[in-house]
Amino acid sequence: MTRQQALGVIGLWTIILPFFGIPNTWKLNLVILTGVVILVLYWHMRKESQSVPTAQDTRVADFVENTMVQKTNSTDTQ
Fold first, then answer.
1. Of 7, 12, 57, 65, which cross-links 53 as Cys (Cβ 3.0–4.6 Å)?
2. What does the alpha-carbon distance between residue 28 and residue 32 come to, in Å, rounded to a whole number?
3. Per-residue pLDDT of the chain in tens (78 residues, 90 and over written 9)
4. Do residues 27 and 17 lie in contact, with contact meaning Cβ atoms separated by under 8 Å?
5. Whole-number Å distance between alpha carbons of 70 and 67
């Protein structure tokens, strides 16, 4: 299961959690646990997205600075 799918399942869980007939203390603990799981998934996804180079990063690596080049005539060297 990918992280995006896990976030979808957690979202569905959060929607249907209040309709379960469980005591409020359990419900509160489950909501807190769900929030912690969401934060951990967010942290992993953010870390992963920062480590992957974007297309703009590769364009910068291809940059070559212009320099003045003195032309030499191949017939003058004889």
1. 57
2. 6
3. 788 888 889 999 999 988 888 999 999 999 999 999 999 988 888 888 887 665 655 544 555 567 766 767 666 555
4. yes
5. 10
What domain range includes position 47?
24-52
Q: What is the 3-state secondary structure (H, E, C) of the chain?
A: CCHHHHHHHHHHHHHHHHHCCCCHHHHHHHHHHHHHHHHHHHHHHHHHHHHCCCHHHHHHHCCCCCCCCCCCCCCCCC
Token look-up 């212009």 returns 66
Give domain status of residue 63, yes or no: no
pTM of the prediction? 0.57
